[in-house]
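Blinded run. Sample ID left blank on purpose so nobody reads anything into the name before looking at the predicted structure. Input follows.
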Amino acid sequence: MSAIDELSAGKYVSITSFRRDGTPVATPVWLVRRNDELLVLTQAESGKAKRIRNNASVLVARCDARGRITGEQLPATARVQDETTTHLTANLVQHRYGLMGKVFGWLTELRGGGGKHVGITITLD
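Blinded prediction complete.
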């Protein structure tokens, strides 16, 4: 099984992004696979999105819902998606995670987060 197969088989992936001073910050997220890429969704102004805008180098690993890493950390490159691709990613995430994905979308709307999400595309190095 390839690394992308192993990562995409799980429900969560840990993305470790890096602060300007190099400090690693790991965050568990839902994911979907599209070809040889992993797609995730996050708040547009989240620390993760800001760190990725500043430094595209990340580490990814399978993890559980609490972020405990259950697989090897692999180097990857992340990029913030445009609005159209973010919309596609949001639909794919909601489809994959069913009712929980829909609830996530509704809660985001209730918190005033409509349109304030951004997709992230991750490619293994």
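Unblinding after everyone has recorded impressions. Residues 17 and 58 are 5 Å apart (CA to CA).
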